[in-house]
Amino acid sequence: MKTGRTVFYNGKIALPGGFASAIAVNGQTITAVGGSDNVLAGSGGAEKIDLGGRLVLPGFNDGHMHFLAYALSLEQGDFTGSSSLSEVRSRFRSLLDRTNPKEGEWILGRGWNHEHFDEQCIFTREDLDDLSPRNPVLLTRVCGHVAVLNSQALALLGITGESRFPGGVVDLDDRGEPTGVVRETAVEWARSQIPLPDSARLRRLVARGGEEAAKAGLTSIQSDDLGTVGGDFRKVIDLYLTLDREGEMPLRITEQFLLRTQEALEEFLAEGWRTGDGSPFFHVGPLKILTDGSMGGRTALLREDYSDMPEVRGVAIYPQEELDRLVLTASRAGMQVAAHAIGDGALDMCLDAMEKGLKAAPRAARHFIVHCQMGDFAQYQRMARLGVGAAVQPPFVPSDRPMALKRIGERRALSGYAWKTLLDLGIFLSGGSDCPVETFNPLWGIAAAVTRQDERGNPAGGWSPSQKLTVEEAVDLYTRGGAYASFEEDRKGTLEAGKYSDLVVLSRDIFSIPEEEIQFVEADLTMVGGKITHRTF
Q1: What is the dihedral of CA 8, 9, 11, 17, to 10 degrees?
Q2: Does residue 346 contact residue 301 with C-beta atoms inside 8 Å?
Q3: What digits encode the pLDDT tens for the residues 336-378?
Q4: Across the chain, how many H-helices and E-strands are there?
Q5: What is the mean pLDDT of residues 200-206?
Q6: What pLDDT sits at residue 3?
Q7: Distance of CA 350 to CAs 26, 330, 379, Å?
Q8: Coil, helix or strand for 498?
Q9: CA 519 and chain centroid, separation
């Protein structure tokens, strides 16, 4: 699609201090906002689009997801919503019928959640072996932190009862043999051994993923992709910069670089990369650090035992000293740090490391915690004092609630997922999806932040209603908040002359409709860099 001059008029254009009725863009840049008559008067030969009263917002920005993992999942098995092991097996048979894999070819899928199973337990290799004995299989839990391998995959990867993965777990049966269930870094290592699609196929999947993102109104994402490519940062950089040079980037991407070791970080820094480098469509973001796992998989690191499994407190991916060293190295090099922490124990570790790094290299680093699901008020006050933000996932509120109440009990659950408290303390937040863990539809994220209810309106009044956000605050998570988290607030996040021409036109005005109807609103038009990437009218 061509990039040119466009004028949108007869609409409701959301501005930092109010609303206008028209907006003009020229290529990558917004050139004017104001009244329809005034903007149209200077429009010359621009294309003119009558908005018919529709609301226009800055293009949505997902503050944390896994775009390449999502793109690859478009060709993999989808086990989301499975209610039993029997249904998993049935869907697996359908996947085999649909794809007809060759002998030895990997069979991949994700999305199962044993919390929704009738049996409420994780299945094992024995539940998969008879379905495809000549093919290695890896089926990843919805959280991405737990997976099940069949016996063929275990043999191919050489995983035995003696295998050890720092920060990872291989579940063993009573005989000391692998059950097929792997957790945390063991999952990442297994995935890294699976061949990626060739370059042409990967580009097609990125394009397809971009089309779906555009339908949701996304113009920017902040993505952690290195786990999908075996930790090879050059492969990710080359993919996106090549697409950018050829004008084929489907949206703007800030990469969160998951460099797992000190050696990998130093190699990255030695090649000259720092936060803020890149191009208008590919931006080097923070060093991403995984410090614990998921609550659903009981690998999130807690201060106290899990309520439903005494004497279990989760998994620390790094010893404190190693974590400190990673953060200190990044801080001294001028890198931002984004640390995955779901449990309150992991949050303590992250804040300890960040405080040491900021003392050694004082600056406005804008480090942030990815997820920040558990914590108490004292930890949140410490975040505010240190200037540490959070990349939160509002969709986790409705989807996690039943599981969280079992895992950590009502007292701890109610002190977590505390987006309103974080905002009131002045902590900067971005909103995201962790896709493919959750749908990347920002309007569902906004609805979840505002109502704190699931799709059916449960629980009545919302879960922990004191933590509800206003519609304006929720929109900011997915616009201004995301731009600030990536040091790009001078270029995007609001609709103002001189900023990027990234915008979304909605089917309904979410500022005026009942909050329970926000989840049904759709993106009618999406523009990124002056290109219309999605349009329904």
Answers
A1: 80
A2: yes
A3: 999 999 999 999 999 999 999 999 999 999 999 999 999 999 9
A4: 16, 24
A5: 91
A6: 64
A7: 43, 13, 11
A8: coil
A9: 19
Q: Does residue 464 contact residue 415 with C-beta atoms inside 8 Å?
A: no
Residues sharing a CB contact under 8 Å with residue 391, sequence separation 6 or more, in sequence order? 63, 64, 222, 338, 368, 369, 370, 371, 372, 429, 430, 431, 432, 485
Structure confidence at residue 229 (pLDDT): 86
Report residue 316 as tokens.
């620390």
* DSSP type of residue 470: P
Q: What separation in angstroms does the CA of 212 have from each of 85, 217, 372, 375, 470?
A: 30, 9, 27, 34, 27
331-347 tens-digit pLDDT: 999 999 999 999 999 99
Which residue, among 372, 374, 399, 403, has the nearest Cα to 308 in the 3D structure? 403
Beta strands in 2-129, from DSSP E residues, in sequence order: 5-9, 12-15, 18-20, 22-26, 29-34, 47-50, 55-58, 60-65, 77-78, 107-112
Under a CB-based contact definition with an 8 Å cutoff, are residues 224 and 70 in contact? no
Joined tokens for residue 16 = 């930092």
pTM over 0.90? The answer is yes
pLDDT at 119: 83
Which uninterrupted H or E stretch holds 269? Answer: helix 262-270
Q: What's the rounded mean pLDDT across residues 52-60? A: 98
CA distances from 426 to 275, 355, 472 (A): 23, 18, 16
Does the pLDDT of residue 505 top 80, yes or no?
yes
Angle (CA) 514 520 521, round 5°: 85
Class of domain 256-485: alpha beta
What pairs with residue 417 in β-bridges?
A: none
Looking at residue 76, its amino acid is Q
**CATH code for the structural domain at 76-192:** 3.10.310.70
Q: What is the pLDDT of residue 312?
A: 96
**What's the burial of 45, exposed, middle or buried (CB within 10 Å: 0-12/13-18/19+)?**
exposed
CA distance to 5, 153, 443, 447, 468, per residue, from 520 (Å): 31, 42, 8, 9, 19
Instruction: For residue 131, give Cα distances in angstroms to 88, 106, 123, 153, 184.
Output: 11, 13, 14, 13, 25
Topology (CATH) of 5-59+499-535: Urease, subunit C; domain 1 (2.30.40)
- The pLDDT score that the predictor gives to residue 1 is 45
Q: CA dihedral in degrees (136, 140, 146, 147; nearest 10)?
A: -20
How do 18-20 and 22-26 pair as beta strands? unpaired
Token pair listed for 261: 């070791």
Structure tokens at 345: 């124990």
For the chain, what percent of residues have pLDDT higher than 70? 99
Distance CA 325, CA 330 (A): 9
User: Measured between alpha carbons, how far is 221 from 232 in angstroms, rounded to an integer?
Assistant: 20
Q: In this structure, are residues 179 and 128 in contact, taking their beta carbons and an 8 Å threshold?
A: no
Lowest model confidence (mean pLDDT) among 1-5, 321-325, 414-418, 489-493: 1-5
Domain ranges of the chain: 5-59+499-535, 76-192, 256-485
